[in-house]
Design a protein that fits this description.
about 220 residues; 8 strands; alpha+beta; L-fuculose-1-phosphate Aldolase; 8-stranded mixed beta sheet; globular; binds zinc ion
Length: about 220
């Protein structure tokens, strides 16, 4: 079942090592089928190079495995919680990408100091509280933060852990994961040289509005 979506989810997962967002088998992309509400998740502990569409696991929003011979990712409960509580999105990406996760280790949000950041999100990349992994706690904290900022930044750092991004499509959630890591890396470099200069909130908001209406072939800046 869901052959097309499995292909798409498999492809999306393989982008994580390509974009250097993950080490070994960590990290994953989950994608929901809007018609059935079923979610395709990565199998646990499988090397990205070995991953085939047929290996992908299909689950329902209550955590039941509907199809797939392999065990689902240990992060499946988190992704399912986020998808269940955010019907407007269809994909969740989770990574421990190095520079963004360094901010998470400090419990620090990433301030808007780059036009790239203003364009993409217009507000700081928020850092949520520490949450116990393996159950719904991480998902609950991610949803709490993403709701608070009304999803303007489609990604959140979870303290001491890593990055969760969301999108209406896997491509949108992937773009958010790549852009967050790129911003985190440049801000980190800037911090080693001195004190980065923040962009005033009004100007950051203006950059965001322009980018999300003018950039790309359709509105949304490629984050949908
Ligand atoms: Zn993790």
């Amino acid at each position: 079942m869901l052959e097309e979506l499995k292909k798409q989810a498999c492809w999306a997962n393989k982008q994580l090592p390509r974009a250097e967002l993950v080490a070994w088998t960590s990290g994953n992309v989950s994608v929901r089928d809007p018609k059935t509400g079923l979610v395709v998740v990565k199998p646990s502990g499988v090397l990205f190079d070995d991953l085939r569409p047929a290996d992908m696991v299909v689950m329902d929003l209550d955590g039941r495995q509907v199809e797939g011979a392999l065990k689902p990712s240990v992060d499946a409960a988190t992704a399912l919680y986020i998808l269940k509580h955010m019907p407007e999105i269809n994909s969740v990406v989770h990574t421990h990408s190095r520079y963004a996760t360094a901010f998470a280790a400090l419990g620090k949000s990433i301030p808007v100091c780059l036009t790239e950041h203003g364009d993409a999100f217009g507000i700081q990349i928020p850092c949520g509280r520490y949450a116990k992994i393996g159950g719904i706690e991480v998902g609950r904290e991610a949803v709490r933060v993403l709701r608070k900022i009304k999803l303007q930044c489609p990604g959140v750092l979870i303290r001491n852990h890593g990055v969760f991004t969301v999108g209406a499509s896997a491509l949108g959630a992937l773009k958010a994961a790549v852009v967050i890591e790129d911003i985190a890396r440049t801000v980190h470099l800037a911090m080693t040289l001195g004190k980065p200069i923040p962009i005033p909130p009004k100007e950051a908001r203006r950059l965001w509005t322009v980018y999300h209406t003018k950039y790309g072939q359709k509105p949304g800046g490629g984050f949908k």
